[in-house]
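Internal tracking record. Fields below are filled automatically when a chain is submitted to the structure queue. Please do not edit lines marked as system-generated. If the sequence contains nonstandard residues, flag them in the REMARKS field before resubmitting.
Queue: standard
Priority: normal
Entity type: single polypeptide chain
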Amino acid sequence: MSQTLSPAEAVKAATEARKPWDETARKGEEIASNFVRDGLKMVVLLNSGAALAMPAVTAFIGFDAAAKAALVYPMGIFIVGVIAGLLASVTAYLAMCFHIEASRADAVLTEHQALQFFRGTFDTTASKDGTATRAATRDRWWKGYSRLRGLGLILFGAALLAFVGGALWVFLLAMRK
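SYSTEM-GENERATED OUTPUT FOLLOWS
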């Protein structure tokens, strides 16, 4: 004997089925955002600390005038690293916002499709009922998220590379002395 659900019950059943997945996804997003936030703070602090420590390094090692003039380059590299780290932080925040909106669009689309399925009007290509429009909106949010995430990773890599490059430059100047 089959049981027929009303549209409201169908949406409620679809929502209840998504709850464990939503909770797991929310925990994963929280862990990922904490990791990204802490990693970006580390890179910005490394670069800014290195840039601020440059006068102390020159006084401690006792660089000559030519070496002190050459320290302008790693100083600039560290400043570029700070800027790249800050831009990566903003990009990571925007990517998180896009991810949240994409997840909401997924939930709306899933509930809409479940409602259509139980009504017997399920059609993914029909734009008159909004399925195609909702799917296109969801796809735009996911594409924006993936592009921002890629840009954030590039900026994070640039900030980390700036710290390593600047530190290597200072090390080589110290070895030359």
